[in-house]
Amino acid sequence: MKLPFRLGTLRQWHWISSAICLAALLLFSVTGITLNHAHQIESRAEVTEIETSLPAPLRTWLQQNPPEDATLPPELADWLEQTLPVSLAGRTPEWDDGELYMGFPRPGGDAWLSLDLDSGELLFEDSDRGWIAYLNDLHKGRHTSGAWSWFIDLTAVACLVFALTGLLLLLRQASHRPFTWPLTTLGLLIPLLILLLSMH
């Protein structure tokens, strides 16, 4: 069978795509194992709690000028960022009867704050689940940035190019390697058989 590609061109696409997705393949392979055995890998969160109160002048000002829904007065935002280890950029506040709640989810951890304008009490909690949880969340794209989402998509495209060019190279070399198609077929059948046999 004659293909409309030169072998050198296929090889170039194959090694270039493998070089591009090498680091990501290593990451996703390792985290595939850790995710598959998540119940066996203990992860104890490291929790940091902060309890404090609004300064009296700021609390009085906020009570006289109640914030509107989905807005955060600059004076309050400045005080929160100076008091807590958080960045409020791009965060949407949630107000409910004079109580503020904000969540700060991230890969491998989570944080939240709750502020009662009547009493001025502020509660803040930060949970860090460690590096394995961080890498697992990167694998799933959980609480990551838009840039990371694009990186996952581009890595998937590079992996497709790597796999398809590898298949075409196998096709060109199959006549010299008699075990090519039995092994390729086996690679396709094993996951299919496992799925079929494990169905209830």
UniProtKB/TrEMBL annotation:
Q: Which InterPro entries match?
A: PepSY_TM-like_2
Q: For this UniProt entry, which segments traverse the membrane?
A: 12-35, 150-173, 179-197
Keyword field: Membrane, Transmembrane, Transmembrane helix
Q: What PANTHER family does the record tag this protein with?
A: INNER MEMBRANE PROTEIN WITH PEPSY TM HELIX
What's the name of the protein? PepSY-associated TM helix domain-containing protein
Origin organism is Halopseudomonas pachastrellae
